[in-house]
Amino acid sequence: MNEIIKDLKPFIHKGWESAAFENPTPIQAKAIPVILQGNDLIAESPTGTGKTLAYLLPLLEKIDPEKQNVQAVILASSRELVMQISEEIRIWAGDSGITGASFIGGANPKRQLDKLKKRPQIIAGTPGRVFELIQQKKIKMHEVKTIVLDEGDQLLVPEHLSTISNIIKSTLKERQVLLFSATLPPKTEEIARELTVEPEIIRIGRDENIPSKVDHVYILCEPRDKIKILEKLSRVNGMKGLAFANDIGEINVISEKLQFNGIELAVLHAETKKSEREAALKNFRSGKFPLLLATDVAARGLDIKSLSAVIHVNLPHNADQYIHRSGRTGRAGASGTVISIATEREVRELKQFAKELNITVSEKTLYKGEIADIRPPRTAFNKKQSPKSGR
After folding, report:
1. pLDDT of 339
2. Which of 77, 192, 69, 172 has the alpha carbon at shortest distance from 119?
3. Distance separating alpha carbons of residues 287 and 272, to the nearest angstrom
């Protein structure tokens, strides 16, 4: 077992072995010692490189299961990410006696208060709901030693900044603040430095991570044929695809046409109700539906096991957005395919993204229900010679 993991508690060793992990990823190897030392941290590492465990394992190491108080708070901008973090806490806490709870906007307030009666040591939540419970004195912050901002570039925006700042201020001065993000724009880093004390800065480049087994491909088509191509992709054997469109109106049009043609799919966007979101993810994760059709609300932090493909129905606006979407497949060295359904103009944009990101994209087609290489056109030189030709 790796030395970094060996120094952690036995229940963490057990979880590591159960997950069949070998060495920590680069972000885990660099972040875990910093967090254990108690330093503040600002960390940038690409999507799918193990950021959640990079902060969760040292958090679990530091939690005192004998104290029935909240000792760590993890903030995330989306309900999906909060629920995933909560599930990771449950899995990795194992039989340690450490418990977690999740708090998200739109959920039943009474049920959330019932969770607090069980006295969790770690809570994960969306900023608005967590701060609301702090103001109501339902969440007591006097024992909180660590606050984590997951996908920090989505949290340190005008919409959340005041709330985040107030949550941090509600803790004792000896608190530890950790920020993790796939991208760290200068403005985000500047704000993060104001919320931390002499933070360590870690930046992990794409070339430092586990080699990805992801193929980046595109299927060229006319704009009017995009939905038909998506329908054909949904019928590819073993398809478990997360398909992205750029706005809710587009999502509604696509889903209606696919369902009319007998394709079962799940839909996820900002206006989806909580119960519908949960049902959509459950049906997709279980394999009941071959497609999850989503806007970029799903691009951040959504972790779906055995996701075979990410499909760009509409090309994203920039290379960073392409990486965030595409990072849902091929996580931690697994294999996957990123498929762009692209017009000629979008192919030119895609190739520019590929140049910026140092990746290779290749053209594919759909042949007999499978994704296949483009076949060279038949010519007079490669056609079989006719026996009547006299040659």
Report:
1. 95
2. 69
3. 20
> DSSP per residue over 114-134, as a string?
HHHHT--SEEEE-HHHHHHHH
Q: Do domains 3-208 and 213-373 have the same CATH topology?
A: yes
Structure tokens at 161: 């900044």
Q: Which residues of 153-162 are buried (b: 16+ CB within 10 A; e: fewer)?
A: bbbbeeebee
Is the model's pLDDT at 385 over the cut of 50? Answer: no
Q: Find how far residue 338's CA is from the centre of its chain.
A: 15
Query: What is the CATH T-level fold of the domain 3-208, as seen in this structure?
Result: Rossmann fold (3.40.50)
The residue extents of the domains of the chain are 3-208, 213-373
Band of the pLDDT at 152, cuts 50, 70, 90? very high
Position 380 scores a pLDDT of 46
Of 243, 365, 382, 257, the closest CA to residue 310 belongs to: 243
Q: Which SS3 state, helix, strand or coil, does residue 367 take?
A: strand
Could you tell me the end-to-end alpha-carbon distance of the chain, in angstroms, rounded to an integer?
70
What does the block give as tokens for 249?
């109106």
DSSP H or E run through 356: helix 344-357
What percent of the chain clears pLDDT 70, i.e. is strictly above it? 90
Pairwise CA distance, residues 71 & 60, whole Å: 10
What class, spelled out in words, does domain 213-373 have in CATH? Answer: alpha beta
| Cα gap 115→342, rounded to integer Å | 47
pTM metric for this prediction? 0.70
Contact (CB, 8 A) for 229 and 222: no
